[in-house]
Amino acid sequence: MLVIIAENGSSIARQIEWLFGFADLTHPGFSVKSELETDQDRIEFASRFILENIGIAVEASEGTYLDDMLGRFAGRFPTTREFSAYARSTLKDLSPQDQPDLVLMTWMEREEILFRTLERHLIADRLSQRFAGEASTGVDVDGFLSFSLSVQNRRKSRVGLALENHLELLFAENGLRYECDQLF
Predict the structure, then answer these.
(1) Residue 84 belongs to a domain with what CATH number?
(2) Most buried among 42, 63, 103, 156, using CB within 10 Å?
């Protein structure tokens, strides 16, 4: 059972109402859902973002691409530009001209799922090496903390760069001129 309490009228309350489809309740303020009733109940990019902001971890992975990614990227993280292109290549029959908003969200969602799949594998591999260190503790605490910080920093910077990469292609596909000194 999941119980969520949010301040009435707050931004997070509105996000939760949207996420779980509680906009038109018979009894506002309280509702029970026993099964997924609509397409809105599917957890996608925006939904995962909201859930992660309220402290609920959502695990999504795309195992069918893991072997391909490990081979293609030689068991390492590629540049964000390379990874964005790869994520887009796994999706077919999308028209940036006909539905640019949907295409952008689909590209972002696919990249996030693929990245988390690759990241989970690479991090598990690194954690299995146990950060061997000092004889007294057997663990290199500084090495572990440094690794953890690099994982967090990679996640933060990658999402913004991925958005820039996808927007760049979306703009080009739609013949839009733009200027940006930050695109990589």
Answers:
(1) 3.40.91.80
(2) 103
